[in-house]
């Protein structure tokens, strides 16, 4: 699971959960793989992100490195910043771990890089 | 919103037929991305966050590197596959997408929404997709289209078989290379066939390949063969893998485990619930009979929606019938419970239509009701038919033929007169049963009086009337041979039964006079035979069926006469008649007997004084000339007696009872018995009403003619048989009271009863409204004991096989219990009758045409054997039987159970008679011997006929069963598993039991056949003797002597044998538990044939044989079902069935053993024991009858077969239908069934427009057999 994905995930579909975001990451196995850098893509993605969530997620798994805590102005032209974001968003993957619902504590397992977001019938 | 149950069902369905399938699903690597989808993805602006919900193997996830395309998949396996392609994948549920609101720029929903089983869920899925998409985001949705060029869907909810590509194909090199982690991983590219062509495929796989795949997938639907061929070919083309088998096995194991644990129970429960609870969204997951992997593999299984299911559930009974009808012989239409009568009528009509003459007769009947012209036509037809009858008569007796020829003209006149009556009756019937009843009541009294007067005044007229009736019947019969046969047979049987019952009753009362009574009875019997012969010839001219009816009526009359003349003689005659009648129609007799027992008991003393011994000889000659005159005489003598008074009160009670009974419907068995009497009276009243109407013109003759026409009209519908039986039963009860009135009334009554029966039949035919009312009436009439029950039974059976079967069983048992309260004899008879009647009824309604034919044949045979016996009759009867058999061959299966039952009944009657004889024998051994001789002859004839019938029937049944199985298979596919599963357990048990019984019976039957062959020689002698007796009117003694001579050895043996038998029987019974023992018993029985006990044994044997035949049939059916199930690829089911069959066979053997033991006991203590035995037999017969009914009733049978098959399948399915399938296909391609809701054109658009308001459809198009929509999320302003 990439942190970009995590930035979108929520447990709000669960019964009794109003926001369910952000999900806490308990990473057991984190993998950083190299991904082709596409500055356009990253620059277009950044506005869609909840930067704080991304930062906290990266921080929770120790992959923040030197990524700034807040979005840099004029990031479209800041390739260094974009690469840092690119790394956090697309190259860092949680292979094994779990996502925890902030409201209910419900854990969604992550295995083989695939988070299982399925809910039981009684949880919907 | 659907209820929780519904949701659970839909979830279970999706789990079983979507998720679980996809977990096992190996997509073909060939499939590439759809161009339009690819275009959609490529046109997304860079940096778009996209989620492909239902990404499958992820073929769309990597089409555009400038977007972030997350793959969401429900299937873990597919997710892993997609993940292995370096895609971002998550496991999610379309109904609960784990994304923030408006977080995505685009959503792909390719071939996903059609997997949701309910509209509500589809809407939820669409809304969820829209939720996660930002305003201005776009979504592309594709769903399978119902309109496909390569496959056609009759239902929108289908289970589409997917053949797991043989492992060779599935693991493509690419896939193998990519996936490795788990066994599943080996499974190469999973490819939801339409959905996913993964990116991996994109570059390489050409559109052509895609097209091929698509075509393949399409073919799966129904153009199966190509699809399969394509799929394997594709697989082979793709890449053969060594591990294919191992992989398949693994997959199968996994599937089995998963499904067994979870899916099965869910699915079954869901289905059951679905069937029970109607809901719009529900789908009858008529589970695809995955079983028929090969045949069905490619065929999509159509799931019927709940609405349909609801209808089905409401009409389940009808449904199977309808399907069966269409499939089998189109005789049966879908029947609503309320429309049962009408349906029967329709069936009858159809049956008639089958026989050209029958159709004409039907038309004639209708026309006759309203137009005399049509009657003329019918007459012309009759005239046409006459020659045939004449031929028959000639064979029997030239004189009779001549008479018959003369009579027909009279009949025509009568028929002409009839129409008015018919119209009146019809109107009354149509209007309402109550009206009819009231009319009947009124008419009953008036008619009775009139009838009595008429009888007294013109006995000869009555005779002529009888002849006329006969002729009319013949005419009608000619036209409506099938229906008439059934009716006539039933009537005959009933008449015979009544006569026998009366005789028995009298005999029981008059035990003192045994010796004289025996002689007299023999004489009377001979006389009856002669009369029957006379009558029969006439009938044969017109139609064979008519003859038996006439004979039966004559027999009854003779019996009555004999009873009237001298108690002893009467007793004998009754016994003899009863014997003959028993042979011919045990069931009717039994039913009648129960009623008769009451009346007979009362009347016996009266009859004794009234019946002078001299009457027997005198009546004989006239009887020989014409049975009718004899009866009138008796009637006259009896009329003055109190019976009238009794009758009146009886009629009154019955009327009240009838009124109550119809209201109550089936009513309690006790009330039924009472009501039966009432019904009989009602029937009489109806007859009387008719007669009254007729009286306007010429009461006596007209009445007869009217009655006859009515009968003719009614005769057309085969269904009436039940009614007829009921009428017979009614008549029988009436007869006892009428005995005082005299035989003539009885004849009239018989005629009336027949006419009533016909009317009843006609009524249903004429007006559906009336038909319903008729049913209750019939039921009431049948209520007498088993009849009511039987009636009730058949109806329910027709409606719902499963439910009704148990009910019928229960009812049967109840009937037996009810019968017991009556006099022992009556009880026994009742018991016998009740089961037989029940069997008959069910049969007749369902298989009107076929059954009637068979019945008439059987009755004819019986009548011939019994009545004329014998002499001439046997050969002719045999020929007739053979002819009838040939004609009925197709119908035989259906009819066979009836015939068997009848035979059994006859056997029962014989046994009863024999029991009586035994009593008498104690008094006079010589007479007993003579009786015993007669009995053996009858028994032999009966046995022969039975064996022949059983053989033929078994063969036919087997054929039919096969047909049914096929039909059932088809039905199963259509209907779906759930219903089947629900029903399976009880039915399976029953079926297995029945099958076992049948197998045992078959062995016994074979043995019996051998004995019969031996007996046939003796029978020929007997027949010759009988002929002599007939010829030499007084020949009774000669015949007796002859018989004695012929039978002397057996007799002597018999005497000793009897004791031995009595002793041995129990032993044998114990032994009989084993099939070998059973075979021995029959042999012993055959040896002892002469002995009454032997006769009883033989009867029991015959019954057993009959049962065996039925069991054999059921066995075959089961086997077929098993074979079908096997073919369906459910090996497990086969094993289950086998095991069950074995169990059932054991059970059946036990039952047979018990019955046999009981029978042996009967030899010692005939009546009481016999009663118990009868009960047991009845139960057995009921079970058999149920099985037979199932088989015979096309619908019932089909349903049953389906049930059985379903059961077997269910069992196998319980293991996991899909799993079972894979197991069957081990080594080959596995077929999975995926649920699809195929969308009609515009359906998806409507869904989105109506329920997902924030999606604006940009474009809608058809692509790849799918409806595709590209929509944009818009801001919806809510005030």
Describe the structure.
The complex is a heterodimer of chains A (about 120) and B (about 1300). By secondary structure, chain A is of the alpha+beta class. Chain A contains 4 helices and 4 strands; from the N terminus they run αβαααβββ. Chain A has a single domain, classed as N-terminal domain of TfIIb, CATH 2.20.25.10. Chain A is about 30% helix and about 20% strand. In chain A, strands 1-2-3-4 form a 4-stranded antiparallel beta sheet. Chain B is mostly helical and about 1300 residues long. In chain B, the strands form 2 sheets. In chain B, strands 3-2-1-4-5-11-10 form a 7-stranded mixed beta sheet, sandwiched between helices. At the A-B interface, helix 1, helix 2 and strand 4 of A face helix 1, helix 3 and strand 3 of B. Chain B: GO terms for molecular function: S-adenosylmethionine-dependent methyltransferase activity; tRNA (5-carboxymethyluridine(34)-5-O)-methyltransferase activity; tRNA binding.
